[in-house]
Amino acid sequence: MLGITFVFLSLQPNFVAKDFRFALYGDCRNGHETHRKVVAGIMEAHPAFVIQSGDLVARGKQDELWKTYDEIVAPLKQVTQIYPARGNHDVGGTGYEDRITFKTNSGNKLWYSFNKERCHFVTLAIDEYTEYSVSSPQYQWLISDLESVKGKFDHIIVSFHVPPYSIGAHASDLQVRATLCPVFEKYGVDAVLTGHDHNYYRTVRNDVTYIVSGGGGAPLYDQDPKKGAIEGDFWVKANHFVIFDVAGKRILGRVIGLDGKALESFTINSRAKERK
């Protein structure tokens, strides 16, 4: 696969037996050759499924771009399921919605949830084109979904496009932060997976891990810690994908560059005891 070798177990010195593995990447847009390499690396990791954090294409209304996207991810979709979040560049036409054909718990083609063993996953449509205020249908659905899973899962993972915490070119979206982060804190969400800024950034705020993964092929953005980084944050300007190994009450994460080397490793602990 493109001459890249990924040795995953050796990247995590304290590796333990996993329940299952999933992958994350986003913002592939028009970086097709990089996107191919990301897909090749993910396939060698053999995840149970893949989460995409948005901006699958550069212009959502152009059908030929969706055809190129389909061609690139076809090998991946043959062996696993892709769960995308819609990005702002995906808007226009029905290209994104046409690719939401899998079974979900509830919701629609823009916001939905699904389960895998002891984990609950939620995907939202968070950008300037979709309403998510407290009175919106999406927000009300989110509250209903999180209420319905109280006490049932070890982990809750949420994914969408525009990050509430970022030090990249777009920086943190303060409206997203004000509207949604209190919900994540209240309902014991373990991690929030986003894109939009074309780099990698991880921060922990009020016990919730926030990750920006936008290194799937679009032009990379510079990062500036003066935009709100705190002690313990990690960031890197690099094309990458993220591998998560769910192991009981822990999730072991590794950020993998295109050379197959780990850029960082981290652990996310379950917040199940904090859920009321």
Descriptive notes:
With 276 residues, this protein is an alpha/beta fold. The chain has a single domain (19-274), classed as 4-Layer Sandwich (Purple Acid Phosphatase, chain A, domain 2), CATH 3.60.21. Helices cover 22% and strands 26% of the residues. It has 5 helices and 13 strands. It has a 7-stranded mixed β-sheet with strand order 4-5-6-7-9-8-10, with no helix packed on it. A 6-stranded mixed β-sheet has the order 3-2-1-11-12-13, covered by helices on one side. Helix 1 (32-45) packs parallel to helix 2. The longest helix has 17 residues, at 63-79. It starts with 19 loop residues before the first strand and ends in a 7-residue tail after the last strand. The relative contact order is 0.18. Mean pLDDT is 93; it is low at 1-15.
Entry keywords:
alpha/beta, Purple Acid Phosphatase, chain A, domain 2, seven-stranded mixed β-sheet, six-stranded mixed β-sheet, about 20% helix, globular, disordered N terminus
Give the helices and strands as they follow along the chain. EHEHEHEEHEHEEEEEEE
**What would you give as the CATH superfamily?**
Metallo-dependent phosphatases
Task: Classify the beta-strand content into a percent band.
Answer: 25-35%
Task: Give the structural class.
Answer: alpha/beta
Widest β-sheet, arrangement of strands: 4-5-6-7-9-8-10
**Outline, from the CA principal axes?**
globular
CATH level 1 class label: Alpha Beta
Within the CATH hierarchy, at the fold level, what is the topology?
A: Purple Acid Phosphatase, chain A, domain 2
DSSP strand count: 13
Largest sheet: 7 strands, mixed
